[in-house]
Amino acid sequence: MNALTRLRPYFPPPLVALILGIALFFIGGVFAPGFANPDQAVNIVRLAAFLGIIAAGQTLVILSGGEGIDLSAGALVTLGAILTYRITNGDDALILPALVVVLLVGAGIGTLNGVGVAILKMPPLVITLGMAGVVTGLIYFVTQGELIGRTPPAMGRLLSQALIGQIPGVIVVWLVIGVGMWVLLERTPFGKQLFAIGINRTAARLSGVRVSALVTLTYTISGALAAFGGFVLLGFTQTVFLNLGQPYLFPSIAAVVVGGTVLAGGKGSYWGTMAGALVLQVINSLLIALGVDEAYQLMILGTILLVLLTLYGRQRNLRQ
Amino acid sequence: MKQISLTVEHAVKTYGGVTALADGNLTVRSGEVVALLGANGSGKSTLSKILTGVVSPNSGRVRIDGTDVSFAAPSEARARGISAVYQELSLIPDLSVAENIWLAHEPLRAGFVDRQAMRTKTRDLLDLFAGRVKSDLQPDTPISALTPDERQIVEILKALSFDPSLIILDEATASLDHQQVERLFELVRAWQRGGLAIVIVSHRMDEIFTIADKATVLRNGHTVGERIIAQTDERELVDMMIAGAARLDRRPERTSSDQPYRLRVHDLKTDVLRGISFDLRDGELLGLGGLQGQGQSDLLMALFGALRSSGRIELSGALRQFRHPRAAMNAGVALVPGDRASEGLLLIRSILENLMLPSWGKYGLPLRVGGARRAGDTVGQALKLVMASLDAPVSSLSGGNAQKVVIGKWLLRAPKLLLLNDPTKGIDVGAKAEFYALLNRLRDAGSAILFYSSDDDELLGLCDRVLVLHDGQISDELAGDGITRANLVAASMGAAS
Amino acid sequence: MTRALNRYPFLLSLILLVIMIAVNRALQDNLFELAPLNGNLRVFMPAILLAVGQTFVVIAGGVDLSMGAILSLTNAILATQIPQDAGVDTVIRALLLAFGAGALAGALNGFGVTVLRLQPIVTTYATGFIFAGFALSILPEPGGRLPRDLTTFWRSPLQITPDFAIPVPLIVIVLLVIVWIILSNTRYKQFLFATGGKADAAYSTGVPVNRVKFTTYLFSALFATLAALAITLGSGTGNPRAGDLLTLPSVVAVVLGGTRLSGGQGSAIGSIIGALILGLISNIISFADLDSWIRPLIDALIIIAALAIPGVIGLIRRLLR
User: Fold this and answer.
1) What 8-state DSSP symbol labels residue C112?
2) What is the pLDDT of residues B14-34, one digit of tens each?
3) C26 touches chain A (CB under 8 A)
4) Distance between CA atoms of C65 and A24, rounded to whole angstroms?
5) Which residue of A313, B212, B482, C81 sits 20 to 30 Å from the alpha carbon of B261, by its own alpha carbon?
């Protein structure tokens, strides 16, 4: 592994993932004629955008370390979409109020997760898993199975269809979030402290970082971002169903890992997650274009994950 | 018990550029109790680790009964009959006393663990300390429920359960009370009569003179001599531990008695500290001495709000109780922690990130990285930091420069009280000199400094006063001409000065 | 109190179980009659088996998120390899194939964790995809039909006397408890707990930590295969997605049973209790005559409350200090 380790500094994981995604795109064009065309590229990026937005909160939670993970993201996506669907009921004027409600509800659930992790010292896996059940239960209860509402036409226009030139609105939103995440992680005390607690909570504490408060805040933000992901997803699906967000949960984790963020925390970036989402979507679209069975899709996805983990997942222990 | 004769000849161990052991020699035979003595940094713990297979020497030989041996893992040393007792590092908290003692060599019956036999054998072992421990120390008690002295006793019994030919007691009496130590020594004498060989590593002179036959003394990584206990005295041994480096470059005495009190501590207690009281003025450099683990770390952490404590702390004239380091920080206190890699730095992050971690709040939103860089450059220059750039990871720095980053992080905040936990450990001579100059500058500028060092030379050369800690209390306060090497060592051992 | 909890970490869960049984009995009079009891236990069986398998991995300090996928895979193998008119030979061959596949799956997990030194959570998550995909490639759609004899054997209670019969799943549960008790008296059990409790201390005392971790993944795969067997026998057909939703509940059952997720302590008996509790909660909610749309919420709230209990106790302890 010697040559690989020497080359590694020049190839940060996000770049590798991006190159991998682009390479797979063109390789795909060889195996599935007609695959590698501009329209397909835009489509892939558009689909990746949804996953990427949903994976933003997951990135933060994983960066915070302490086995951080948010398994309630899928349920929050569904909740965000359903809330928007019902509150706006097709009325463009209610889009903004719906957004505010969605963000607040997401933040509220996220805070409950954060309190469970930071104060009750529950393993993140356990509390977010339990909370996912609660959110899903809430959805069933509130909707009573009747998914009434309508998608405001403006959302479909802005998000699904082209906004700037040929670029669909959701991609623009994704880029804005990308920049926003970069600012959050690299240009705010929050971000600096987040990396610190992911690397070494003792050293962070001895440098004045209030660890519990920061952990709680991280889950709060993650909850809000996941709910926002649902809000945005509605613009694409134009309808809601009870299992809307679940298929995005595990891919959100995969996107973060593929993008080079270390599961132990403290190292990574949202650019990486974005690249990871792109890679996953390229693979997904390619496998569909090739008419590959779902069975083989899953096997290939799993194998690729394992390979990437072996290359990047065995990082030295960041903790003492 | 098998007869055994073990010798270590000219063992050398280096870690990177640092020589932990330059010429280690030790001989011990069945029926002997050999004490291994040495001041901090003398190499005695390295020598002890070589014996137990935790560390492999770079050169030199270890011979058992005349045959060369080399251990690749602790289990190999154990298989050869060498058992060691450390300070409760090898116990599994949720398992019981019996389960821990017999781990990996549980008595079996028909392939299954014979719990009955395990309990009986454990009880037999526990009986060795009967009457000296609380009655709730039973074979089935989980380790997590035990007090430090009880855990220490379990460690001793665990070492014994392997039926060794040689037992090493490495600071094994640290957590034990008087009666327990007495009992342990009765056992040691019984083992001795039974043919066991015993090595005792201790810093307590009175214990050594009670139990040992011989003493092997290390100084600066060399074995400087062996003495028969009956034919020597405390003074001679202490002299052997410190002789040779007799230069006393004391800085000129500085009186700061007209400066205001920065810190007044009364009856500070933690799990380890048993009531510490002292004062510190601005412009004063107060040293903490004594052997490792006597409470120096606890004291510094408690003052920084990182450790729960009871007692009175008065900072800058106001009664304070810091519940979190951030509160202490905001009050002008700074701490350079004891283990820079695991407590002071984020190794994979850049120098700039490490310098700025406590202070990002001052740089606006979004962070003015340019301003931070300028501050980083300024402090880097002031400290003469040798680095490729502020963006290089801190792990790329030498020990001395890495420690400068830890200090620089605090200097950026102009602290009024600076706490230092053995800051020059593992730093080369040149960096140390720069560090001393820095401390003196800070003191001259009016900072109050509390400074724990495991290096007596530093305490001699830098401090206006030294508080020597022993067993969680101040055993002596040395000032002015009273700060001598001999007095420091004597106070560290709890012996009369 | 702490000492009792240490020896029998499932004490609190036992209390919870008794409460659940009481509530369930109040809502359903015939809970302990043969037919409902048999039916319930049969339904709970796969979850119980998965929880037991997960316990091994968790006690050693890891987690296995691929258990559901291994269940799907071995289920698919059984369904496709046992035609309706199968003779004993075919059945035995199918069983060997299924358990063999399970062993390979477990070995892959173990390899990833001990040799490649990857983190258990992502490793088993990734391998889960591989196994799930395999399952789908063998059996794209639910199907297959097992011989009547086999399913009847599993479904009918075992007649001891003309008046007295025992549900077969109950026998299995008793066997599981017995196996765990026997295992608790082996050196392996000590190794398991030491590895999860403090791996470095265990290593320096001579415990073969890596080998121990590897075996736990073999165990989890074994129990996933057994769970697949339970499902196949229970339903008589195969479903390549049978295990999808069963993995995470296995983790919840383990935690409910008093086993610590970070390892070093716990009991399979607790996990059995945990799985039973989850099953009973489901039952209670069905029988409580609640509006069907509030059921999932109540279910989830009860579960999260149960999961939070250790945390709340810890918080109270810290505040009282």
Assistant:
1) H
2) 876 678 888 999 999 999 999
3) no
4) 28
5) B482
Selected residue of A64, A183, A184, A207 to mutate for chain B interface (largest B Cβ count, 10 A): A207
Domain range spanning residue A114? 38-312
Cα dist from B272 to B308, B473, C244, whole Å: 11, 9, 52
**What is chain C's mean pLDDT, rounded?**
89
Number of domains in chain C: 1
Q: Which positions in chain B touch A318 (Cβ < 8 Å)?
A: 347-348
Mean pLDDT of A86-100: 91
Tell me which amino acid residue A35 is: F
pLDDT at A208 over 60: yes
d(CA A262, CA C170): 44
Which chains neighbour A (Cβ–Cβ under 8 Å, 3 or more pairs)? B, C
- pLDDT value at residue A318: 29
| Chain B residue whose CA is closest to A315 | B348
Question: Residue B247: phi, psi to the nearest 5?
Answer: -65, 135
- Chain C interface, best mutation among A129, A136, A139, by max C CB count within 10 A: A129
Could you say which of 3.40.720.10, 3.30.460.10, 3.40.50.200, 3.40.50.300 is the CATH number of the domain covering B261-492? 3.40.50.300
Which pLDDT score is estimated for A317? Answer: 35
Is there a contact between B324 and A210 if contact means CB atoms under 8 Å apart? yes
Q: How far is C79 from chain B (nearest CA, A)?
A: 38
pLDDT of residue A316: 40
Q: What is the DSSP string of C33-59?
A: SHHHHHHHHHHHHHHHHHHHHHHHHHH
CB contact under 8 A, C122 and A313: yes
Is A306 a domain residue?
Answer: yes
Mean pLDDT of B482-486: 82
Q: Quote ipTM for the complex.
A: 0.86
Looking at domain B5-242, which of 3.40.50.150, 3.40.50.300, 3.30.300.30, 3.55.40.10 is its CATH number? 3.40.50.300
Query: Looking at chain B, which residue has its C-alpha nearest residue C209?
Result: B104
- Is there a contact between C123 and A136 if contact means CB atoms under 8 Å apart? no
Whether C127 and A306 lie within 8 Å, measured CB to CB: yes
Amino acid symbol at A200: N
What is the total count of domains within chain A? 1
Residue among C45, C37, C39 nearest C164 (CA):
C37
Q: Do B367 and A189 touch (CB under 8 A)?
A: yes
CATH of the domain at C172: 1.10.3470
Residue A34: its pLDDT value, please? 78
* pLDDT above 70 (res A284): yes
Residues in chain A: 320
Mean predicted confidence (pLDDT) in B413-421: 94
Distances (CA, A) of B450 to B71, B326, C33: 42, 19, 75
User: Looking at residues C167-184, what average pLDDT do you find?
Assistant: 93
| Exposure on the CB side of residue C176, measured as CA atoms within 13 A | 26
Facing C206 at nearest CB: one of B104, B115, B144: B104
Q: Of the given ranges (A265-269, A271-275, B398-402), which has the lowest mean pLDDT?
A: B398-402
Higher pLDDT, A25 or A175: A175
- Using left for φ > 0, alpha for ψ between -120 and 50, and beta otherwise, residue B82 falls in beta
Q: How far is C271 from chain B (nearest CA, A)?
A: 19
Give me the total of CB pairs closer than 8 Å, taking one residue from chain A and one from chain C: 143
| Residue B334 and residue B322 in contact, taking contact as beta carbons nearer than 8 Å | no
Q: Which chains touch C (3 or more CB pairs under 8 A)?
A: A, B
pLDDT for residue B192 is more than 50 = yes
- The whole-angstrom distance between B325's CA and the closest CA on chain A is 5
User: What pLDDT is attached to residue B1?
Assistant: 52
Asked if the C-beta of B78 comes within 8 angstroms of chain C's C-beta atoms, the answer is yes
**Pairwise CA distance, residues A169 & A160, whole Å:** 6
Residue B245's pLDDT is: 47
Domain CATH code at residue A93: 1.10.3470
Whole-model pTM: value is: 0.84
User: How high is the pLDDT of residue C184?
Assistant: 92
